[in-house]
Each structure stands twice: as C-alpha cells, then as structure tokens.
Amino acid sequence: MRNLTLIIFLIFLTHLEAKAQTEFILEPSQSMIMTGKGTGQDATINPYFGEDCFAIVKNIGKRPFSIRVQQEGKIIKEIPIMKGELIKVKLLKGYELYLDPNPKGIAKARVGFEKVSE
Predict the structure, then answer these.
(1) How far is the CA of 32 from the CAs of 1, 14, 101, 103, in angstroms?
(2) In which order are the strands placed within the sheet that holds 53-59?
C-alpha cells in the first residue's frame, strides 16, 4: 500500500513539474527568452532544438503581450498576442523566441512546441 501511494505521489509530482515548464508569468519589466540560446539558458525546453519547429504560444493572462523572433540579435518579426489568443510561429533553426510583457501589468503565457511536418 505504501509503494502504491508513493508511486501515485511521484506521478502527480512529475505532472506538476512538466506543467510548470510551459506556463510563465511575465513581469512588466521582464523580457524572457523562451528558446534559442541552448540548454540551461532557455526558459522552456524545446524538444526540437536545432531543427525547424513551430512554437505555440497562448496568452492565458488578462493583458496583451508580444512575441519576438530573433536571429543573432536581428529581429525577424514581432507579433502582438491579445488576451486568450493562441499563435503558432514557425521557428527556423537558429531562431530565438522571446516573450515581451505589457508595461502596464503582469502577463501570463503558455508555450509549447510542434514538429514541422514534411
């Protein structure tokens, strides 16, 4: 019985940890790199790092914020994302994904990744 309780607890804990890696709170003065710099430097783990993929970003907060895609310091595109909106952005190999908060208040985002289908 103890082993079963421990196993259930560990499964629950693992689920919480996985979820924590994909939801972010953005403070008004905090621009956050999501992916593109590499292991240990990214806010979220991109399972497709080093290849083309899609980033799926959902605004789960009450304020708009923007998505910024860069490569080697050069801005490729900036996309505003409104409350409740879901945006799918293609990230080519070497692109960096940033979330830039609204200066008027805290923003919340959920980030996921999807493989590019050939």
Answers:
(1) 44, 24, 9, 14
(2) 23-26, 107-115, 53-59, 86-91
pTM of the predicted structure, to 2 decimals: 0.72
Q: 19-42: per-residue pLDDT in tens? A: 334 777 777 777 766 665 555 554
Instruction: For residue 80, give the nearest of 106, 107, 100, 103 by alpha carbon.
Output: 100
Neighbours of 82 (CB within 10 A): 10
The encoded tokens of residue 9 equal 């607890």
Beta-strand (E) ranges in 1-118?
A: 23-26, 32-35, 53-59, 65-71, 74-81, 86-91, 96-100, 107-115
- What are the two backbone dihedrals, phi and then psi, of residue 28, each rounded to the nearest 5 degrees? -55, -30
Amino acid at 111: V
Q: Using an 8 Å Cβ cutoff, are 66 and 79 in contact?
A: yes
Residue 42 vs residue 114, higher pLDDT: 114
